[in-house]
Structures are given as C-alpha cells and as structure tokens.
Amino acid sequence: MSTVEGRTMKITVNEQNLERVKQFCYLGSLVTKDCRSCHEVRRRIALGKQAFNKKRDLVRGSLSLHLKKCMVKAFLWSVALYGSETWTQQKRRYLTT
Q: 23-26 and 29-32: which strand pairing?
C-alpha cells in the first residue's frame, strides 16, 4: 500500500500486493520512509566500529604508525562510508545522541 495525495493505493506486482514498510535495506543501504539518512549514518558508524574491533589485535601489534593508519582506512572507513554519496545532508549533527 502507498499513500499519494491523502489516498491509499494498493500496489500489485505479479499478482502479489506489496507491503508498506517504514524502512528496508536496499543494496546494503537503509532506506527509510522519510528519506533521511540519520539512521543509515548511525548504522554505518556501528558497522565500522564492528569491523575495526574484529581487527583490533592487528592494530595493537608492533606495526608502524603508517601501516596502522592504512589498516584503519581499509577496515573502518571503507565500511563506514559505503553509500555515503547518497546520504541526505541536514543542519542537525548525526553524531549527537
């Protein structure tokens, strides 16, 4: 179901009614009903932290600082910023709770 101009519409594909949802994951990105990115940004930050924590022992080792920075870029930033080019921008800061 979908609402357009105050009217509720049923959308059918291959004789199946589509369910109306508040959010869904599409190609690894969270799409919400209001089309805002705040939930996606928070989710990506959490996924980046999780990826970093899996490799924490490597970063704590006796590696050079330059190599540690490269590892953080590879493990954390690639996960955290995936899909960021589609995020909407707002005045409100995402990192505040």
A: antiparallel
Residue 5 has pLDDT above 70, yes or no: no
Is 87 in contact with 41 (CB distance < 8 Å)? yes
The β-bridge relationship of strands 2-4 and 7-9 is antiparallel
In angstroms, the CA 80 to CA 44 distance is 5
Q: What is the pLDDT of residues 48-93, one digit of tens each?
A: 888 878 878 877 778 888 988 888 788 777 777 777 776 776 665 5
- Alpha-helix residue ranges (DSSP H) falling in the chain: 38-54, 56-60, 65-72, 78-80
pTM surpassing 0.85?
no
Cα–Cα distance for residue pair 42/37, rounded to 1 Å: 9
The distance from CA 41 to its chain's CA centroid, rounded to whole angstroms, is 5
Cα(86)–Cα(92) distance, integer angstroms? 17
Q: Output the six-digit token pair for 89.
A: 């921008």
Determine the 3-state secondary structure of 26 from DSSP: strand
